[in-house]
Design a protein that fits this description.
Chain B: Belongs to the intradiol ring-cleavage dioxygenase family. Chain B: One of its GO terms (molecular function) is protocatechuate 3,4-dioxygenase activity. Chain B: Its EC number is 1.13.11.3. Chain B: This is Protocatechuate 3,4-dioxygenase alpha subunit. The complex is a heterodimer of chains A (246) and B (190). Chain A has a single domain, classed as Aromatic compound dioxygenase (Protocatechuate 3,4-Dioxygenase, subunit A). In chain A, 5% of the residues lie in helices and 23% in strands. Chain A is built from 3 helices and 12 strands. In chain A, a hairpin with a 5-residue loop joins strand 6 and strand 7. Chain A is globular and about 60 Å long. Chain B is 9% helix and 28% strand. In chain B, a hairpin with a 6-residue loop joins strand 7 and strand 8. The radius of gyration of chain B is 17 Å and the shape is globular. Classes of the chains: A mainly beta (246), B mainly beta (190). Strand 1 of chain A pairs parallel with strand 12 of chain B, so a sheet runs across the interface.
């Protein structure tokens, strides 16, 4: 690689998230953060080729029924069927097309199909709790699943996780990679959950709560929730300013 | 200028990440048998020295020519010459806190100002107790001249730089990740 190849490279640049967008890594109410959150401040990394590109994983990763968690086994899973859908956009409102969305969740009784989950709620032989979908050209995705149950954990006295679905998204660049959780409106367990409440900005917390969407319900079959996801947007200022920020 | 939308906050992958994020081919950035392929293995430990058994590492890297098959590589997206090269790897930790990735060494990368970045992997670390992913970089110990000129390594205090260097191992390299403690790995804000 010669230096001549490098001159004049113009890279897109992604906006830095504002400090309250994400939870602080050290959130002592969530006990597991205490020994795991780094103690040194994060070091600012100017975005270079590695950071502005990212894996573009497509159809090859999807099976025909990966988006429908109610039809992955011979029998029907227990619980209330729900349709979960939404749009993935960046902070400028642009759709994020053809990006892989992965979800995983507990069954209707609040139990995960994982050997580590040992609380005595029933396992459902017809529910795996794992889904995958690709956004379309407008950034839209859809899953069919069942309403997950709440479950206890040992973080504090009588601790319960509000019902939630885990979401994992790649976006279009390494900088946009995001793992989050979708919550349900009106959950009475929010007040005591340090993971939900680790996000300090109340408006940012609200974004993690799906909207009940009656228009998308399927009569005599499924309720529906809309969950729009916004990934980081791009800077409009030119790359040449990057070094000035250091 | 249009109004900016608020980003979705990150949340932990929780203790059951294995059910949703395990891919059988996850650790294979390149297929087994690829010429020049080697293993990167490492252990993730917390501030008490305990292995983190419910974590996951993802890697992203250039191909051996220093290119990305991606529209935002300003030199143009280009399919790698190496058959089966994915650029991306994913490995959950096992019962002793080990992750593993089979890959090849990426090429050097040009910088907009004419400099060069040493071969490196970008790593994301997810886990129970991590409310947001952690980002770090892995550099190679046999690239001393390139490492010495690398702008990212150069921006890190000399006494912590070593946490970004893999060490030689019998079948490739070892790269441990210390979330906390005396040897805390350098993590970046991207």
């Amino acid at each position: 690689m010669t230096t001549q190849d490098a001159r004049g490279l113009v890279l897109p640049r992604y906006r830095r998230d504002d400090v309250d967008a994400h939870p602080p890594l050290l959130s002592p109410g969530y006990k597991s953060t205490v020994a795991r959150a780094p103690r040194h401040p994060l070091i600012y990394l100017p975005q270079r080729l590695t950071e502005v590109t990212g894996p573009l994983l497509g159809e090859g990763r999807l099976g025909a029924l990966d988006h429908d968690l109610t039809r992955q086994h011979d029998g029907e899973p227990q619980g209330q069927r729900i349709i979960v859908h939404g749009r993935v956009r960046d902070g400028d409102g642009r759709p994020v097309p053809r990006t892989l969305v992965e979800i995983w969740q507990a069954n209707a009784a609040g139990r995960y199909r994982d050997a580590r989950d040992t609380w005595p709620a029933p396992l459902d032989p017809h529910f795996e709790g794992v889904g995958r979908a690709l956004t379309d050209d407008q950034g839209r995705y859809q899953f069919i699943t069942v309403q997950p149950g709440a479950y206890p954990w040992r973080n504090h006295d009588n601790a319960w996780r509000p019902a939630h679905i885990h979401f994992s998204l790649f976006g279009r660049a390494f900088t946009q990679r995001l793992v989050t959780q979708m919550y349900f409106p009106g959950d009475p367990l929010f007040f005591q959950d340090p993971i939900f409440n680790s996000v300090r900005d109340p408006k940012a917390r609200e974004r993690m709560i799906a909207r009940y969407d009656h228009a998308t319900t399927a009569p005599e079959w499924a309720l529906a929730y809309e969950f729009d996801i916004v990934l980081r947007g791009r800077e409009s200022t030119p790359f040449e300013d990057e070094d000035d920020d250091e | 200028m249009s109004e900016q939308l608020g980003v979705m906050p990150a949340q932990t992958v929780g203790p059951y990440l294995h059910i949703g994020l395990r891919w059988p081919d996850g650790p294979y950035v390149v297929p087994e048998g690829t010429p020049g392929a080697f293993w990167i293995r490492g252990r993730i430990v917390d501030g008490t020295g305990t292995p983190v058994v419910d974590a996951m590492v993802e890697s992203w890297q250039a191909d051996p020519d220093g290119r990305f098959d991606h529209p935002d590589d300003p030199r143009g997206a280009r399919q790698p010459a190496l058959a089966g090269f994915r650029g991306f790897g994913r490995s959950e930790t096992d019962g002793q806190g080990w992750y593993r990735l089979l890959t090849v060494k990426p090429g050097s990368l040009p910088e907009p100002d004419g400099g060069t970045e040493a071969p490196h992997l970008a790593l994301s670390v997810f886990g129970r107790g991590l409310l947001h992913r952690l980002v770090t970089r892995l550099y190679f110990p046999d690239e001393q001249a390139a490492n010495a000129a690398d702008p990212v390594l150069g921006s890190v205090d000399a006494d912590r730089r070593g946490t970004l260097l893999a060490s030689p191992a019998s079948d490739g390299f070892r790269f441990d990740i210390h979330l906390q403690g005396d040897h805390e790995t350098v993590f970046f804000a991207v």
